[in-house]
Amino acid sequence: MFLMLEGGSLSKKQRFDRAFIKDYNATEEGYLTVRDVVTKPGVYPYGREDGSIQNELKHPGDIYSDRTVQSCNAKPVTDDHPNEPVNMKNIKAYGKGMSHTDAKVQSGDIMVGFTITDEALIEKIYDGKREISLGFMTDLVAEDGTYNNKNYQFRQTNVEVNHIATVDQGRVGPEAAIKGDACRTSMKVKSPESILGRIQKVQSQSLRQVSSGRYENQQQTITEPIF
Hints:
mainly beta, UCP029215, about 40% strand, 14-stranded mixed beta sheet, single chain
């Protein structure tokens, strides 16, 4: 249950934006570097604790703010979402890499680069763990309205990114994604091989491609494709 605060605001909530890794580069050291979309404006469904759904607006005026865009910079990359915000006290336990300092709005999307340095997570990505999910905190304001012909009941404000998680693919097919379930996308990968073997090959072939996928927004198990 959400608690109302003065002025129609709600207590700060944690949210996750999900996207698919489209391509990545392997460095000579074996690290993976990625640059991809992490969020964009729109109206998306989120699950309440009682199982019902509420629609929340990501307005350009909110997520295009310098505060939100800059908060994507220099943030930890994690293997799945931790059960707590990532900070300097637990970064050793959760950190598997770091985002770059190149976050910007591009063609209506917020994009940022990041580098994954953890060997175990890199192996998982080569084996198909190819979704990224932005973990952030936001203040919710009760507000009924319509954006791009979609109704919403709350507006996300003061969005601040905490971490970028790599997560497993959704459990249902693309046809269910239209209904708000997690979707999956195909990925071209080579047969399993050691990190050392990949490092030896990287000078001749550093770019590995991931096929295009949908972008979706998730809170708990509720997701919504946005392109």
